[in-house]
Amino acid sequence: MSDILKVENVTLQFGGVKAITDISFNVKEGEICAVIGPNGAGKSSMLNVINGVYLPQIGTVTYDGVERQSINPRDAAIAGMARTFQNIALFQGMNVLENIMTGRNLFMKSTWLEQGLNIGRAREEERVNRLAVEKVIKFLQIESIRKTPVSKLPYGLQKRVELGRALVAEPKILLLDEPMAGMNLEEKADMSCFILEINKEQGITTVMIEHDMGVVMDISDHVVVLDYGKKIGDGSPSEVMANQDVIDAYLGVSH
Amino acid sequence: MATIPGLVLSHNNNHPDAVALRYKQLGIWNSYSWSDYLAEVTSSTNALKSLSIGKGSVVAVYGNNVPKLIFSISAIQALGGIVVPIHPESTSSELKKILSDSKTEILIAEDQQQVDTFLGIESECSVNKVIYLDGRGMATYKNENLNSFDDLIVKSNNASIENDINSINENDTAFYLFDEHEDSLYKVSHAAIINNSSKIITLNTLTEKDSIVSYLPLSIPTNLLFTFVTSLNSGMSLNLPESNQTIEKDIQEIGPTILYAPSFVFKHIITSIAYRIESANEANYNRYMNHYKSLMEIYNKEVSGESSLLDKIKKSWIMLTTFAPAKNVFGLTKIKHAFVSDGVLSKVNFDFFHAIGVEIQHSFGQAASCGCISVQPDHSVSSENAGKAMTGCEIKINDDSEVCFKTDCSAENLAGSNNSNDGWVNSGYVGKLDDVGNIVIDGRLEDMITLKSGKKFSPENIENLISCSPFVKAAVILGNNQDSVSAIVVIDPNSVNSWADRKNIRYTGYTELASKEEVKDLVKEHISCVNDSLESSLKVKRFVVLHRTLVMNEGEVSKTMEVMRKKIAINLKDVLTAIETNKDNCKVDDIDQLSYELDINKI
């Protein structure tokens, strides 16, 4: 399968701090790629470089055959990248349906006036977009909390809503920043099932940052390991597990 | 000449545009008219024809109430097949028993959960084809006996099935129904179950303008009779909820005029009100409590015919400000008849529903009697009985106090061991007939408890009294060969959570909450109240607050939430032994492979 995403020699610096140093890796179309590493390894920064939140000083990101050094996050979304965040970034006062609806933003062409008065294109758009949202609500099995404000939901469900918002954008590639953080075993199992289904049945390429090694080794096809901003491992889960540098980074090494 | 598919056909001829079925999907209620209903049955029938289903073929439908599964019931029967409804949460051993006893050839499963359960026992039964409705999660399954229903429908033609329907006979077998308590299957003909539903329709003057929600699986015989068959027979609309998690909201949106539910559902409504009230602010909490007290006082006066005009005005005010909105939340505003099966409501709960204008009508029946032999008439104010025998039914009590019945709508035990003589069937329940011929059910015969003193009693009455508290989810009474009666109490997580929050009690989860002294005191106080109404030999002397709820998947409660004693005696044998040997506490090695310490409390 061809590579949908190529990260080449990317270096990202904040003043004197090097967050990422000369990192390259490829993500094949249709795979689940996990980016792992200890805290501060530069994983979230890497995701932010991919979807254009950060501009790397050196290096390029090739996505869907187009090479570029920078991309505007909105353009990234138009090009089919959707993401979730490490710290939940939902609209706390809005309900689940409304939050997920915001993920359809790119599909709405009508003006605010049409939308306000519910006339013209706005009506049809509302219907089509609501249908797309409802399909995702069914997929994620959150019908019963459709009208519940997200601030009232437990953490695990909020994560699920966030995944829903990314999914309704009909992405080609999903960037998930710690989708299982803070979840209990049951919630992790549910989330793993959803991620696998999204990948295997809908064919959406997934790049995820995750700390739970059990989950990473179980569901990913490809693992990239970062430590102190450098890549120390890249390969299948079993290859990475046998890699001495990775073992040292996780378990420490005697000096 | 009425058959299940024949009823669909006749509704289509008489009023093709009336609403037959509503189903919430993707957040929107979709309606099927009778002509749509027939069209769906037609396409399903043609699809099933390609699997060579014919007269006498046994086909199981395994899942929740989704339209395709409902349509396929009529489709199977239109081809002369026999339908075996199976509960979606059936354990694999139960599934195996039903499939092999019924000699099921084809299984129609709702989704991956059911398919997976079946695949675990595939080699042990005679099913040769599985058809699934929702293929989600099964893209990688390689089993060649698996087929998607949609694929079959696409491949089939759309020929009329009128001739097929007309060629089946009303005395043909329509269903094999599984009775969980008897652990056996019953053979039910079209005529028997339709006639039985006609009796209910006539008794309660149900019309095609009524609507009913079917939210429990049709494998429950009483549910099959009261919702599916009765709606088809009377022409009323059948409403199906979106998912098991949205039932409450969906019932509220539909506002049905007829409600059928096993007693646990009404108990759940009481509990839901309780935990909402427990978490309400002080002013609302006090208002509710005062209004509840006044309402029950007025209701008692009404029953004894002593209510004054002032009471009527006061009641209207209470209803308007407190209970009408509460009724609306649970979709009870338009209810004309609320049928209860599988147990009776305790007097407190029964009176409460009557006071707010929800006319509860107890009924009694099981698979052997096609779901019902007696039902209380409208405006009945006694919580104890389950009504008189319906026309065509006779009830008598034998020497063992067991209820025996004879009905013109009977079902035959598939194993042939129908314990009947001269048409009389032993129900397996203990009970009595009151002065006017109402049947009063005490409990199951096999559950009867005999104390050391020789005193014999049915544990269900006491369990009912204990579990009428909104804080108690279930209770199991013990006492065989004991000096006194003991109870295992399962607290309700929702209402006790709210209560604990209100009392500022800190806890991390259910197990810790159940072990709190305050919770034990709460339970103790309630049991003491219950004891006041019991004769001295039956007073509950000791109790255990269980560290978990009873699990349906383990068979500890039935599909209608009745306590299954045999299984509990196995799973909680440590608790039972400790109580029998008069210990003060016990160590339980539980089904989750963990150990728990439980106190045995004295009252």
Describe this structure in words.
The complex is a heterodimer of chains A (255) and B (603). Chain A has 10 helices and 10 strands. With 255 residues, chain A is of the alpha/beta class. Chain A folds into 2 domains: 1-80 and 171-255, P-loop containing nucleotide triphosphate hydrolases (Rossmann fold, 3-Layer(aba) Sandwich); 91-166, no CATH class. The relative contact order of chain A is 0.18. Chain A has helices spanning 43-50, 73-78, 96-102, 112-117, 121-139, 155-167, 185-202, 213-219, 237-242, 244-251, and strands at 3-14, 17-28, 32-36, 58-63, 66-68, 81-83, 173-177, 205-209, 222-227, 230-235. Chain B is α/β, with parallel strands linked by helices. Chain B has 3 domains: 4-257, ANL, N-terminal domain (Rossmann fold); 264-333 and 335-446, Luciferase, domain 3 (Roll); 448-602, GMP Synthetase, Chain A, domain 3. Chain B has 20 helices and 30 strands. In chain B, the strands form 8 sheets. Chain B has a 5-stranded parallel beta sheet, sandwiched between helices. In chain B, strand 1 (19-25) and strand 2 form a beta hairpin. In chain B, helix 1 (4-14) packs across helix 3 and helix 8 crosses helix 9. The N and C termini of chain B lie far apart (61 Å). The mean pLDDT of chain B is 91. Chains A and B meet through helix 5 and helix 7 of A and loops of B.
What is the CATH superfamily label of the largest domain in chain B? ANL, N-terminal domain
Radius of gyration of chain A, Cα only, in angstroms? 19 Å
Q: Name the helicity range of chain A.
A: 25-40%
- Helix count of chain B equals 20
The count of DSSP E runs of length 2 or more, i.e. the number of strands of chain A, is: 10
The CATH topology of the largest domain in chain A corresponds to Rossmann fold
Strand residue percentage of chain B: 15-25%
Q: In angstroms, what is the radius of gyration of chain B? A: 25 Å
Regions of chain B with pLDDT < 50 over 5+ consecutive residues?
none
On the 0-100 scale, what is the average pLDDT of chain A? Answer: 90
Mean pLDDT of chain B equals 91
Briefly note the structural class of the backbone of chain A: alpha/beta
Q: Give the strand order of the largest sheet of chain A, numbering strands 1, 2, ... along the chain.
A: 6-7-8-3-9-10
CATH architecture of the largest domain in chain B: 3-Layer(aba) Sandwich
Label the structural class of chain B.
alpha/beta
Shape of chain B: globular
Provide the helix percentage of chain B: 25-40%
Distance between the termini of chain B: 61 Å
Please identify the oligomeric state: heterodimer
Which pair of chains forms the biggest interface, and how many residues does each contribute? A-B, 15 and 12 residues
